[in-house]
Amino acid sequence: MIYTVTMNPCLDYVVELEQVRLGRTNRAKGTYIRAGGKGINVSLMLNRLNVENRATGFVAGFTGDEITAQLSGEGIAAEFLTVSGLSRINVKLWAEEETEINGTGPMVAGSDVRRLFRVLEKAEKQDIIVLSGSIPATLPMNIYGEIACWAEQKRIPLAVDATGELLRDCLPYHPFLIKPNLQELEELFGQPLKSDEEVLRAADELRREGAQNVLVSMGGGGALLAAEDAVYRAQAPQGKVIGTVGAGDSMVAGFLSEFSKKPDLGKALSMAVAAGSATAFSPGLGCRSLVMRLAAEIQPVQVTRKS
Fold this sequence. Notes:
Layout: E1 2-6, E2 10-16, E3 30-36, H1 38-48, E4 53-59, H2 61-73, E5 77-82, E6 88-94, E7 98-101, H3 110-120, E8 128-132, H4 143-154, E9 158-161, H5 164-168, E10 177-178, H6 182-189, H7 196-208, E11 213-217, E12 223-226, E13 231-234, H8 247-259, H9 265-280, H10 288-297, E14 301-303
Parallel strand pairs: 1-4, 1-8, 2-6, 4-5, 8-9, 9-10, 10-11
Antiparallel strand pairs: 2-3, 6-7, 11-12, 12-13, 13-14
Helix pairs in contact: 1-8, 8-9, 9-10
């Protein structure tokens, strides 16, 4: 079983336009509303890849009701905890460029966190827990670190897709997988990373800080995976990018879906890039048939570390 944790889920209100004209009335070509949040996206893609998973986290108000209703409609086992306030609405403008306006999250108290731990207590050593995305402002910034510490004590593998200190707080507890994108990796180290060699050095530094496997998503450039005994590089397949929302989350799901069946890092990387690309080439999350077709095209190569 894979447990996904979304502390701050949302409804994504996606608006497609020819262009955005500030200060004027804009007419949409199309709109739709979908349950979002990084962990929820991971669950949705795992579900499409026929991998059993359970989604948890915090929801609030009528927006939270819609989030859980959409997940139930997808056949996903969900055990979200109801808290005070409203789950956020994020506006995604798809025009010449992608523009996002992310809302604020609900009120989450310390007692709510204790309720979350009771849900996670159901996980066993053969399961995986995924921590993804931002946290509500009322939660302490070390909340991911607390969960990572608990998971290490329980010997439950942990995957983390978060930014800044939320990610770094987890590293001392040896998460099984972390997935920064290139921009996040550059922000962590405060400098541009212009070559694969520089990306690998930064990824290996995160490994030295505690991460077991570092999967770096590089958009149209594919991905790099730094593990203890090997480094793999995969190029992205060709295709028309429609939107990148959920692509990184799909990568996490693709990687875990393959690795949970067979611990082959190269094949897991292929599935990660395929799932991320399928979502980038689709108006929503990619479908299973497209993921599998793209996975057959992707051939990761093993890279030698330079001393």
